[in-house]
Amino acid sequence: MNLKKIIILLLVIQALIGTFFEVTQFFLPSWIRHMYLPDIFEFARTLTWLFGILSYVLTFVGVIQIIQNKNVELFSAFKFPIFLLFAENIFWFITTSLSTEYSFFIPGANAPWHFYLYKTLSLALLILISIHYLNKNKEEDNAETILAGKGARFFNWIIDLSIILSFSFGHMKTLSQGYIFEDIAFLNSSASWFIFINMFWYYLILELFFHQTIGKLHNNSYVHFEGSKFKAILLRTLCRFIPFEAFSFFGKEGWHDSISKTKVTVPTRDKD
Asked: Under 8 Å CB-to-CB from 221, ≥6 apart: which residues?
C-alpha cells in the first residue's frame, strides 16, 4: 500500500469516527436553540464546528470521486480536510503550549476514549501528509502558471482570516483557565498578541508545506517563490505584520509579495 492510499484510509477512518460522534452526540449551539445573538466566542466555536462537518463531508466526496474515477488519488475534495487538520493542530499546539492547564499530547482526566484514537490518527496523518506534500511540491515546481487576480486574493484573505479568528477566539476559553504569560499586564489587556501568534504560524506552516492556505483552495492558487523556500515564506509571513500592509495591494503588488520576492499564481490548466 503506497503513501497516498494510507493517507486516504486514515482520512476516511477519522471522518467516520468524527461523523459517528457528531450524529450520536448531536446538539445545536445554545444561541441557535434559544434564538439570541451569540458573543464572539460562541460564534467562533460554531464556525469551527461547521468547518469540522464540512471536512467530513468533503472526505466522503473524495471517496465518491475515487469510486467514480476508479483511481485512488488525493483528489481536490481531500485538500480541505487535510489543510484543516494541519490548521487545527497548529492552533491547538499554540494554545496548549501557552496554557498552564492543558497539554497537546496528554488529554485531560475526563477525556473520552475516542479522543486518544482521534489524536493518534491525527498525528499519524500529520507525519504522512508532510512527507507526501514535501515530495509532491518538488515535482510541481515547473508547472505553468498565471498570476492570481486581486479579487480572488481578497477572497483568499477573507477565508484565511475567518479560519484564524474562529480558532483563536474558540481557544481563548482554554487560556482563561491559566496561561504562562498571565503575570504580564499588557498581555491581559488585549487578545491581539494571541491572534497574531496564530496568524504567524498558520501562514508559515501551511505555505511551507503546501504552498497554499485554506483560503487559496477555492481557486487553487499557490505561492511561487525564488531561491530558498524557507527564507521566502518566512519573510513573506513576517511582512504581513507591517502596519497598513493590506493597503499595499492597492498598488501593483503587496509588500508581502514584493519584499519576499514571492507571488501567488494559478496553474494554467485550472483556468481552461
From this structure: 148, 152, 153, 156, 212, 264, 265, 266
List the one residue out of 171, 165, 163, 166 whose CA is nearest residue 97: 171
Domain boundaries, the chain: 3-270
For the full predicted model, state whether its pTM sits above 0.85: yes
| Amino acid of residue 167 | F
Cα separation of 106 and 195, whole Å? 24
Cell of 61: 466526496
**Dist. CA 145–CA 143, nearest whole Å:** 6
Residue 231, amino acid: K
Give the residue-averaged pLDDT of 157-169: 96
Tell me the DSSP string of 3-54.
HHHHHHHHHHHHHHHHHHHHHHT----HHHHTT----HHHHHHHHHHHHHHH
Angle at 217 between CA 158 and CA 59, to 5 degrees: 120
SS3 string of 189-227? CCCHHHHHHHHHHHHHHHHHHHCCCHHHHHCCCEEEECC
Q: What percent of the chain has pLDDT over 90?
A: 64
- Predicted confidence (pLDDT) per residue in 44-57, tens digit: 999 999 999 999 99
Contact 99, 218 (CB under 8 A): no
In sequence order, the β-bridge partners of residue 145 are: 267
Q: What is the distance in angstroms between the CA of the first residue and the CA of the last residue of the chain? A: 34
Could you tell me which residues come within 8 angstroms of residue 33 by beta carbon, excluding any fewer than 6 positions away? none
